[in-house]
Amino acid sequence: MNDTMLERFQYDNKIVKYFGAATIIWGVIGMLVGVLAATQLFLPEANLGNPYTTFGRIRPLHTNAVIFAFVGNAIFAGVYYSMPRLLKAPMWKKSLSWFHFYGWQIIILAAVLTLPLGLTSSKEYAELEWPIDIAIAVVWVAFGANMIGTILNRRERHMYVAIWFYLASFITVAVLHIVNSLALPVTLFKSYSAYAGVQDALVQWWYGHNAVAFFLTTPFLGLMYYFLPKAANRPVYSYKLSIIHFWSLIFLYMWAGPHHLLYTSLPEWAQVLGTVFSVMLLAPSWGGMVNGLLTLRGAWDKVTNDPVLKFMVVAITAYGMATFEGPMLSFKNVSAIAHYTDWIIAHVHVGGLGWNGFLTFGMLYWMWPRLFKTTIYSTKLANTHFWLGVLGIIFYALPMYVAALTQFLMLREFDEMGKLAYGNFLQTVVELVPMYMLRAFGGLLYVSGAILMGYNMFKTAKQGTFVATEEDSAPALTKSYNPQGEFWHRAWERKPVFFAVLATVAILIGGVVEIVPTILVKSNIPTISSVKPYTALELEGRDIYINNGCVGCHSQMIRPFRFETERYGEYSKAGEFVYDRPFLWGSKRTGPDLHRVGGKYPDSWHYFHMEDPRSMSPGSLMPPYPWLKTNELNYSDLPAKIRTMQKLGVPYPEGYDQQAVADLEAQAVKIALNLEDAGVAVMPNTEIVALIAYLQRLGTDIKVSSSN
């Protein structure tokens, strides 16, 4: 073809370099925070004795850092590198690319500042408060607009499979984020969820499961479909398999969220739907794994010498393991063992460390030398990183599986008299300490490898010459194109708007079918007349509970198992949570369930327990919270909280916002007097008093059976 018929254009490598560097920097930071959190589970003193670095506050910082900072920046680096080359067009607007980069980093910094301060919505993987949620939506839409503009300006007629996954990821994450983040603001950094109790739980895990699907999985599948064939110098194994993989995956994933809520107060029909569709997910997930591994046919000899392919092979294998385990965990009998134990932690990290981490490392090791027109500085260091990462995953995951089975078997054991053999939850926690130490060691190995990679990438850049813009050329698309007998999917691939509409319909169906009936059909959440709204002081105490991240270690959901009802009390009912915004069912028990703790202990017990947990619970791994005794309770925004709750349908009496402060102070004085009778001198206007009020309320709205 004559050169005059070609259009010349440039790829922007600078934005790729910046996102790549951010990936490495935030990855190391996020992993180090994770090691600190893991260390606190066997050495509570590692919180450094202040509220900002306690486990409850840095756990969400760790998850946000590794998901949105490390993995997020890796996605953007890979998309900004691969998409222009697949479409033969530069990104639509450079200004949008840079707005996206700086906007995303500012959002991450906002998370770093707000989460340790206790400014959180407490929703898992969505803890950031409403102004940051809005910023996320704006920056994400800018990314999507840039992507769609590039697709519309492409010079390649058909969209390659990687583009399908990028497009579906953008659409679905936008829907998930907006729907789950709906809330009514109280102040600049305080809001209450638009959903309550069971509804909030369903929406949250519809989001939570599919955030894993469409932020941690589908964009990485797109990256796999681009970078693996490039690294192996082989075409994708099966184009038709990729079609089945894509459409079945994006449709089925959106139904699977309820499998996180098996045996809870969620309506049974929703639990069944979640299980059925989760099991079906195994087929498309493994279809993608098979397509990836078989792409290496004829290139397996390269795997022994090429660290890029080593990382990618292990990544795809970890994807296969995690997507096998997920459907298995959706069976009720397996969920009964795994839920609320370290099994879930192991499952998540096999996917996060193996699939996301290793594919990111492989992508960077392949891409970085090409950006700087050189070879990798040290293949030996890259191979060392690989083995540190593999050992890190093993030392992390295997002890967590052992810990989960150990704890489950201990918790459910009854003695010959029919009583719980281990009646004190802490008896199980003490047994897990060696496994927690091994887990922290595994995390340390993994982050050591990431630090090695950072050094290797720095030296690679130093020895090369960065090419900020890369020249390319391609013929423009002709508008008249209507081939006869074209495969149906090939026709869809050249119609991006039509393709996007179909993908949107596919991802919306599952969420609509599951969520809408739960909100509109009242019989899903039977009313309990004795359940009343929280008092003003209890509401403030609940917010303190949320701010300190207590939900990260304590659940508030007693499942209908004998070993749980004997231990904690009457199983939880859907109608008990109608005023809980947000819901606090939790996903891991490092401490016992608290749903029936109200009235179980005197006020003084809670006071001393927060002052020094081991004084009341020998062997406890909970850190002390002495600052709660002296921190003055700030309830200046209490009237605004009451008005916000009223707008959300909580039946506080008309004008209660004017009376709430007086009610709060009266109840606080009563608790302070109770503590004084027990020999404890504390001011009524302290945070500990409000927290005690909340804890003493839990589970007292209905008559409960006696428990051991």
From TrEMBL:
Compartmental location: Cell membrane
GO molecular function, one term: metal ion binding
GO biological process: aerobic respiration; electron transport coupled proton transport; respiratory electron transport chain
Membrane-spanning intervals of the chain: 21-43, 63-83, 95-118, 130-152, 164-186, 206-227, 239-256, 276-296, 308-324, 344-366, 386-410, 436-455, 497-520
Gene Ontology cellular-component annotations: plasma membrane
Membrane topology: Multi-pass membrane protein
Pfam families, alphabetized: COX1 (PF00115), FixO (PF02433)
SUPFAM superfamilies: Cytochrome c, Cytochrome c oxidase subunit I-like
Keyword Signal: no
Domain Cytochrome oxidase subunit I profile: start-end pairs: 1-499
Residues given in the record as heme b 2; high-spin binding sites: 347
Cofactor note: Binds 2 heme groups per subunit, denoted as high- and low-spin. Binds 1 copper ion per subunit, denoted as copper B.
Cofactor (UniProt): heme b; heme; Cu(2+)
Catalytic reaction equation(s): 4 Fe(II)-[cytochrome c] + O2 + 8 H(+)(in) = 4 Fe(III)-[cytochrome c] + 2 H2O + 4 H(+)(out)
Pathway it works in: Energy metabolism; oxidative phosphorylation
NCBIfam families assigned to the protein according to its UniProt record, in alphabetical order: ccoN, ccoO, PRK14485.1, PRK14487.1
Family the UniProt entry places it in: Belongs to the heme-copper respiratory oxidase family.
Annotated protein name in UniProt: cytochrome-c oxidase
Organism name: Algoriphagus yeomjeoni
